[in-house]
């Protein structure tokens, strides 16, 4: 009898020992959030995963970061060896080979360009260079008016579309056009990174690429708790979004990259129609959409278009919703946009 | 009480020590998985780790960023970034951080400080999991 009891005790001791050893080797409990960060695409990218053992979480996050780095290496116009930089360097009016991936991304971007009546334009590279919001140190004065006039003249001199895509080739019309995928590449990269996480078995995650973000699942049934920045107070939030499931969020505002010159705020969201910062009566536009690519593009397009035309564009995307903050601080929240005022 | 008495009678002192030790290890692990303070500040430049700082020891370090030197300061279990020449000083404006998973970045300098040492507790980024901006 005592031998049988001793056998049971030995079993209990062994089980406890194995559990303790496994905890030590595998690491923290899979219940909590694990986070990692990288500098990518000119911003701080943070990936948080929930409910994954440490041994699986880090490789999954690494794979997602690698995918974003790969996309940056292909689509950033600031990376000299990228496909986009190579296309921008090509002689205007000549057909250039286009990778399948870039063709897919650009085709989607051009669709939104068409639907927005040109307010969302992925060919604004030369105008962006004139303003120099991506330069370090950042600009403190606007470009010379004659330079903007010249750009507008070049643009209006185009007889056809600025960007043409045909049979896996691309042609840029003239010197007014150069690829700048800043309005979509980050969103596309976030979508791809989330696909990688899902492929690696991560069901609950948040990817935040400098404010362009996408969530999946929840935190053990609790929603992801997201703040929406106050356009005029860097430390404040104007809305709280508690979100579960698959949602992308993107915000475009006149406060991200800007300078004030002679009392006028000049910011990085440029209006192709004027060559200047968009003045649509809005301070910020936030979009909730099924994917980051779409949310990224729509937030820029709605900001440029303004309230009336922007909301008309949004109606073409039934699964997307917006929160617009006007220059006077008042808001428009479309049905379906999940947010409440902060406590 | 009977199972406990049975357990004590049928086990040797060595069994009891092993059981007790394992139980303590499991309970400690469970406690730390609920909320774990950060213990290490990992400083990286261009996504490569360059400095590993214990947060339980006050210290100050000058690190070469892309735009020139920046200072990483550890004090009272917290860490902050002091930029000298960053155009927007965004990393400096973040101030002190201490929770595991929190990070400060100076993008033009290529410098990121990240607090590591365990799991992040819910809503650590100023009460939010993230802020859309």
- Highest-level CATH class of the largest domain in chain B: Mainly Beta
Share of helical residues of chain B: 25-40%
Low-pLDDT sequence parts of chain B: 31-35
Largest interface: A-B, 58 and 48 residues
What characteristic shape of chain B results from the CA principal axes?
elongated
CATH topology of the largest domain in chain B: mini-chromosome maintenance (MCM) complex, domain 2
Content-based structural category of chain A: alpha+beta
**Taking strands numbered 1, 2, ... along the chain, how are they ordered across the largest sheet of chain A?**
1-2-6-7-10-13-14-15
CATH superfamily of the domain at 91-179 in chain A: ApbE-like superfamily
In helices, the fraction of residues of chain A equals 25-40%
Domains counted in the coordinates of chain B: how many? Answer: 2
Largest sheet features of chain B: 4 strands, antiparallel
End-to-end separation of chain A:
64 Å
Number of strands of chain B: 8
Distance between the termini of chain B: 59 Å
Question: What do you see in this structure?
Answer:
The complex is a heterodimer of chains A (343) and B (133). Chain A is an alpha+beta fold and 343 residues long. Chain A has a domain at 91-179: T-fold, CATH 1.10.3980.10. Helices cover 37% and strands 25% of the residues of chain A. Chain A contains nine helices and 15 strands. Chain A has helices at residues 2-26, 54-75, 83-89, 100-115, 125-131, 145-156, 185-199, 292-305, 307-314, and strands at residues 33-40, 43-50, 95-97, 163-166, 169-172, 205-209, 212-216, 224-230, 233-243, 247-253, 258-261, 264-267, 282-289, 321-326, 331-333. In chain A, strand 1 (33-40) and strand 2 (43-50) form a beta hairpin. Chain A is globular. Chain B folds into two domains: 2-34; 40-116, N-utilization substance G protein NusG, insert domain (mini-chromosome maintenance (MCM) complex, domain 2, Sandwich), CATH 2.60.320.10. Chain B has a four-stranded antiparallel sheet with strand order 2-1-7-6. A three-stranded antiparallel sheet of chain B has the order 3-4-5. In chain B, a hairpin with a 2-residue loop joins strand 3 and strand 4. Classes of the chains: A alpha+beta (343), B alpha+beta (133). Chains A and B meet through helix 1, strand 1, strand 2, strand 8 and strand 9 of A and helix 1, helix 2 and strand 8 of B. Strand 8 (224-230) of chain A pairs parallel with strand 8 of chain B, so a sheet runs across the interface.
């Amino acid at each position: 009898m005592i031998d049988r009891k001793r056998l049971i005790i030995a079993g209990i001791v062994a089980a406890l020992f194995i559990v303790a050893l496994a905890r030590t080797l595998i690491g923290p409990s899979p219940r909590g959030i694990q986070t990692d960060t990288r500098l990518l695409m000119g911003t701080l990218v943070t990936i948080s995963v929930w409910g994954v053992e440490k041994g699986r979480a880090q490789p999954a996050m690494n794979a997602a970061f690698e995918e974003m780095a790969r996309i940056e290496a292909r689509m950033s116009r600031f990376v000299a060896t990228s496909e986009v930089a190579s296309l921008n360097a090509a002689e205007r009016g000549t057909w250039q080979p286009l990778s399948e991936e870039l063709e897919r991304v650009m085709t989607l971007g051009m669709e939104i360009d068409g639907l927005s009546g040109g307010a969302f334009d992925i060919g604004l590279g030369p105008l962006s260079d004139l303003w120099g919001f991506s330069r370090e140190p950042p600009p403190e004065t606007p470009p010379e008016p004659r330079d903007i006039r010249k750009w507008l003249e070049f643009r209006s001199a185009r007889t056809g579309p600025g960007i043409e895509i045909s049979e896996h080739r691309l042609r840029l019309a003239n010197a007014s056009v150069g690829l700048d995928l800043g309005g979509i590449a980050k969103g596309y990269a976030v979508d791809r990174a989330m696909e990688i996480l899902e492929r690696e078995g991560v069901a609950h995650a948040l990817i935040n690429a400098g404010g362009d973000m996408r969530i999946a699942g929840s935190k053990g049934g609790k929603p992801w708790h997201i703040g929406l920045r106050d356009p005029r107070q860097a430390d404040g939030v104007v809305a709280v979004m508690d979100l579960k499931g698959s949602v992308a969020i993107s915000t475009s505002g006149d406060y991200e990259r800007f300078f004030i010159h002679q009392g006028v705020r000049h910011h990085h969201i440029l209006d192709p129609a004027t060559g200047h910062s968009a003045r649509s009566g809005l301070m910020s536009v936030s979009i909730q959409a099924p994917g980051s690519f779409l949310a990224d593009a729509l937030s820029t397009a709605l900001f440029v278009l303004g309230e009336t035309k922007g909301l008309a564009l949004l109606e073409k995307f039934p699964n997307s919703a917006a929160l617009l903050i006007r220059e006077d601080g008042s808001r428009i929240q479309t049905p379906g946009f999940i947010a409440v005022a902060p406590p | 009480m009977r199972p406990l008495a049975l357990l004590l009678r049928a086990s040797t002192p060595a069994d009891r020590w092993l059981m007790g030790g394992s139980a303590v290890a499991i309970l400690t692990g469970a406690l730390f998985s609920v909320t774990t303070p950060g213990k290490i500040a990992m400083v990286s430049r261009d996504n490569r780790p360059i400095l590993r700082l214990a947060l339980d020891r006050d210290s100050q370090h000058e690190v070469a960023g892309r735009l020139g030197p920046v200072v990483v300061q550890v004090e009272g279990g917290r860490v902050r970034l002091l930029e000298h020449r960053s155009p927007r000083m965004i990393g400096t404006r973040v101030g002190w951080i201490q929770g595991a998973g929190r990070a400060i970045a100076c993008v033009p300098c290529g410098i990121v400080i990240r607090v590591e040492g365990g799991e992040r507790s819910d809503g650590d980024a100023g009460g939010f999991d993230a802020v859309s901006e």
